[in-house]
Structures are given as C-alpha cells and as structure tokens.
Amino acid sequence: MIKNFIKATFRNLWKTKSYSFLNIFGLAIGIAAAALIFLWVENEVNYNKNFTNIDDIYVVKSKQTYDGATFVFESTPGPLSQAIEKEIPGIKHAIRVGWNNSLLFSNGENNLYLNGYHAEPEILDLLSINFLQGNRSEALKEPNNIILSEDGAKLLFGNEPALGKSVRIGNNESYIVSGIVQDFPNNSSLKFNWIIPFKKFETGQEALKEWGNNSIMTLIQLEKNADVNQINAKLLDFVKNKTNGQVTFSKNFLYPMIRWRLYNAFDQNGNEKEGRIKNVKLFSFVAGIVLLIACINFMNLATARSEKRAKEVGMRKVVGATKNSLITQFLGESLIFAFLSALLAILFVYISIGPFNSIINQKLEVNLLSTNHLLFLLTIVLSCGIFAGSYPAFYLSSFNPISTLKGHKQKAGASIFIRKGLVVLQYTASIVLIISTIIIYQQINHAKGRDLGYNRSQVITTNLQGDLSKHIDLIKDQLKATGNIEHVGLSDMSVLNIGSNSSGFEWEGKDPKSSILISMLRTDDGFIPSMDMKMIDGRNFNPHFLGDSTSIIVNETLAKMIKKDGMVAGSTITYGTESFRIAGVVKNFLYNSVYSSPMPLIFIPFSASNGILNIKTKNGVDFPVVIQQIEKIIKKYNPSYPFEYRFLDDSFNNTFQSELFIQKLASVFSILSIIISCLGLFGLSAFATAQRSKEIGIRKVLGASVTRLINMLNREFIILIFLSCLIAFPIAWYMMNQWLGNYGYRIDISWLVFLLSGALALVIAIITISGQALKAALSNPTNSLRDQ
C-alpha cells in the first residue's frame, strides 16, 4: 500500500512538474528560513551552557540611585569578595576579576593583541576550566604566571610547545606560560585568550582597598541548594554596614549567569527588563510566519488544482477506497513533498549559512548528525506535511464519486473563499514585514543624523600606549607638521563610551540630600577642538597656565545644575578635600547613547599614561596617505606595538549593532516572504487563467481587447492585495509604535511609509500575475474553443 502511495505521489509530481516545483521550492525557502533562525536561537539559548556550574554562578551587581533614577552596574569594590565569602553562608567562591582587557603580547617578532582577564586562582574551578597542559593548582600561584587558551597559544607560538615558555606583555614585562586550557565555545560570555593572576593587577592600586571605589567584577559560586533570596537580603546593605553608613549609594545583589546573555538589561527603576530575548522571540515568530506563508502556498495550490484530480478521487472511491484511505494518501503525498522540500532546504542552508553569519556576527555551524538538528528537521517535515496537506486531503476526499465521474464540477465556494483568505493572510504578513523594515531603516538614519554636539567626521583615533605618553608633545607637533592634520587631542576614554563617574562632587547651593551622578573624562587642550566642540562660557584648558592642573570644564547640563543661567566659569566645586576651579562650560554633546539626553559631565586635565589619541584631519585629505604618515610617526616612538586605528565615524555606526541586526534580518525575511508569496500567486494566477481559458477565448471572439482581458484577470488578485493592505496597516502601525517606544529619540510614523509599502506590494503582485494574464490574452482563441 505504501509503495502504491509513493508511486502515485511521484506520478502526480511528474505530471504537474511546474506546480510541484513551485510547491517544493516555496516550502524549501520557508523551511530554510526557519532552520537558520533555529540555529541562531539554539546558539542564543545555549549561551554559557559550557559551564557545568552555570546554575550556581552569579555576578554581583550594584543598584545606585541618583536624582530619582536607578542605575545598575556590574562594578564592585575590591574588598567585597573576601568579606562576603567569610561572612555570608552559602557562598562557595567569591573572586575578584578585572575587566576584559586587550594587551600587546610579543614572542620574538610576533606581536599581537590578545584579550583576557586578571583573576584569582579560584576562577579555574568556578568556570570549570579544562586544563590541557600544566599544573592546575600551581598555574596562577605566582604573579608572573600566565594561562593561555589553545587559540591564544597557537596565535603566539604556532605549532611549537608553549608550556614553560616566556612571553612579553607591553614593553618589558615577561610572563611564564604555566598552563594551556581548552578554548571556550563562541557562545560564552567569558571567552578569553589569557588569564593572569589578580595579584599582579592589584599591585600598586590602593583604590582596590576602598569600599567606596567600584572598579572590578565580583564572580560568585554558591553552594548547592543555597538560598539566593537569603544571600541577597544580607548582600543588599553589606557595603553600607561595612563602612558604618559612610557608603550608602550602592545596593548589591546577585545576578545569575543563566540570564546574562538574554536578559541583562534594566529600566530606570532598576528592574530587569527584556534584553536580547526580545529579538529571539521576535524572529522566532517571524520565521514561523514565513514558514506559515510557505505552507499556505502548498494548501492553495493543492486545493486550486482539486478539479484536475476529481476523477482520480471518483475512480478510487468506485474501486473501494474509503474516505480515510484517501485522506491518508493525500497526507502521505504532502509529507513526501515536505520531505523533498526539506532536502532542498538543507542545500539552501549550507549555501546561505556564511552570509547569514555575517549578518548576525556569529559563527553558526550546520551539523546534520546533531540530535537537535535532526529532531528539528523531522518536526518541520511532519508539521509542514500535516498542516499544509490537511485541508487539501479532507477537501479532495469529500468529492462525490458519481458527480466527478460524470464531469460535474464540485461546489467550490468554500474552497475559493478559504483560498482567497489564505492569499490575503500571506500578503498581510509580507506587507507588515515591508513596513517594519522601512521604519527600522528610518529610525536608524534618524538617530545617526541627530546633532551630537561634536563633529565625528574626519577623526582618526588610535590608542596611546607603550612609551607614547613620554613623547606626546613631539608626536603632536610632528603630526601637525605633515600639513594634513588640523588638531590632535588626548582623552582617557572614547567620546562614545565614557564609563567613569562619581556622585561625590559638591558646590555652593547644592541640596545636601541630593545625589547626582557625574561622568568624568580626562582630556587635554586639544580634545575640544579635535571634536569641534563649542565653548559657551569661559575657556578651554591651557597648558601654559600652571593653575589648570586643578581646573575643570563642565558641560551645559551640570552648569545649569550649579547655576540657573549656566554661566559658572570661575566658580568652584569640591570633591572630598579637593577644590576645582571651573575654567569653562562646553556646549552639551551626546555620549554613551544617542537616544538619551546629555548627563552631567566634567572634563579633568589629562594625566594618564594611556588613553586615546584623537586626530582631526583637514578637509579633502588623501586618507591612505594620512594613515601612512600617522603610522610612521607613531611607530617611531613605539616600534614594538602594532599600529591600529579607527575612524570615529565607523565606531559611531557600530553603536547601532542591535538596530542594524533587526533591520538586516527584517529585510531578509521581508524579501523571503515576498518571494514565497509571489511563487504562490504565480501558481494560482496560472491555474486561474487556465480555468478561464474558454471564457477568454469567447471574449476575444466577441472583440475584447488585450488590455481589457489583462485587467479582468488581474482584478481579482488586486482586490485581495488591497484587502491585505487594509489589514496589514493597523497591525504594522501598532507593532512599530511599540518598538519605537523603546527610544527616547524617535521618528514619527509617516503615512507615506504605508502608501509606499502597499504600492510596492501591489506592483510586485501585478508583475507576478500579469505575465500569465498577458500570455492568456495573446493566445489564439481557437485553441481553447476547439473542443466546444
């Protein structure tokens, strides 16, 4: 019986090659799209699952409230870890970890930057790090020991043994490779190339002993069955109690590793909100919609061709086929079609996985031997086969055998209505995706075009490292002497990401009960002109003024907090026992987020040995030549360091990664949904035209023009597209209005977006169906009327 089913299926497939191709190809696209999203979702939800202790690992976060707004930070004071491990029951390990850092490593002539952490030895057990070479218990015992990952060792030493070898970091510090460990997978939040003992990092850093200085990360491993709520209750005011009420701004709590990737976001009340999980849910839903559109194609084309198989159904019933056996046969055919589509989809996935990885900035891999991947394919084949084949199976099996064998047409009212409804559903989804893509694109451009308060174009940035700070005045002079450089400025952080802040500043008239978080950026006299920022009161720093070592510059926001009119040049503010004179006020500029308003900010005179060199070029320069000139000067004073640079414009554009990710995926799925919908529309229009061939022939004989016939054939589908627009517009408006509500600086949704999207969908539909209509209108009427 099964053999007969398969034979009948492939016979039907071969007899209707064009329709079978449309069915298989359209469904394959839908399955491939769903498969790619499945691979991405699998990667996201399995983040950090490589850690065997994931359920017991936490990071200590800090809630801090300033001026009514609550911020959540991951930085904690140095003494915290040792104290809570001793005093709070249930904590197995509490360790200090520095921030992920990029350091210059040298092995002979091989110089490269590698990322890693300074951490205490317990990190090896806490993260279940797998040792390949070396003594686990001794690897982080000495300050100048270093552990390398497999990848880090290969980058530094190639295929040579690395254990016990010496590597140089920076200009003169040597470290002994004491261990080689297994690489973490790409979907790990703590991926590293090296680990250096934390005791090396804390040498000479007195601030790490202060309870009021939040500057490092604290990782926690709890005992099995420890009560997290009880530990959090003790942790909440732990710092306050340890300092006898002197440090009150920080409320600490544990945040589980299992939520780091998908949920690590907080609102202005300090409550957790959805992070990346929003994107996972969104594109899982969108992939489901694209797959649904592909299944609708199958249902539509199968039911549309029902009359062609009516006599087959009648004959089978006459020879004894039951309704159940017919349903089984047609569902079996549908499953075979779904299986063939899945095979083609696998090919599509292998072809598209590279470009897809580029879009999502991941390294996903297809593994057909993976249980999860095989289970996904099986589920998709069964789901699509049964869902897409269910209605055609029940519809075809209900035909009356006597009527079909006599050539009577079946009543098709319900099936036509359902078919039209499914076409409307398809195009509604496609139009919603088109509108969403356009609005996301507009929002990104709107944010990029916002007045930042500085000029990011023609600014080249490079890290100030090694011995560069010792020769900075010479470097500045030589850069300007090239004739291509207008300004050179120093800062300890990028203007796009100012991470240093404090609430300890006071001034005359400030409410003693208020707590205001003020960001701090160390700059020199060249920074403001290199960014083309504007002074609105007072002056810039001047290296020739000896008193400027205790001068500061404030932004407009802070100036208006100090004095209503913002004219505060010459005023004084204090921090503890130190007093600072305000030299000037810089016009507000946006930093950290283009969507927020400028927060209070202070410029402090630059005095660090490392930071960022901000180089403003003149207009119309030849950038390849300028880059070569900069590199030559930098390498002159820092020959052992590789020269790396960035354009500030590119760094700014990279801050929109989340939005660009959504835009790119929305664009891809919009195109796929349109392609699948068009395949279905093409098949339906071809079938509808064939069904009306005799009517077309009669109308031509009676004098109907080609244009009139094309309009007649297109009218039915155009009405369906208009109906799709009426349904899609309010849905898209609601969805995108909700999405835009996440941004403080946003566009207003224009009615032109809906008009353009509807017109685009209509034009694509008309082009798709007009080919068939034109072919029918130009055909010889005698061919269709010959057997009348």
In terms of DSSP E residues, the strand content is 15-25%
- The class by helix and strand makeup works out as alpha+beta
Largest sheet entry: 8 strands, mixed
Span of the ends, CA to CA: 40 Å
Instruction: Please report the number of helical segments.
Output: 25
Spatial shape: elongated
Keywords:
single chain; 788 residues; alpha+beta; 3 domains; 48% helix; elongated
Describe it.
- This protein is an alpha+beta fold and 788 residues long.
- It folds into three domains: 2-43 and 278-446 and 657-785, no CATH class; 54-273, no CATH class; 459-653, no CATH class.
- It contains 25 helices and 27 strands.
- The strands form five sheets. Strands 18, 19, 20, 21, 22, 23, 24 and 25 form an eight-stranded mixed β-sheet that branches.
- Strand 9 and strand 10 (173-181) form a beta hairpin.
- The two termini are 40 Å apart.
Question: What does this entry show, briefly?
Answer:
The protein is of the alpha+beta class and 788 residues long. Helix content is 48%, strand content 19%.
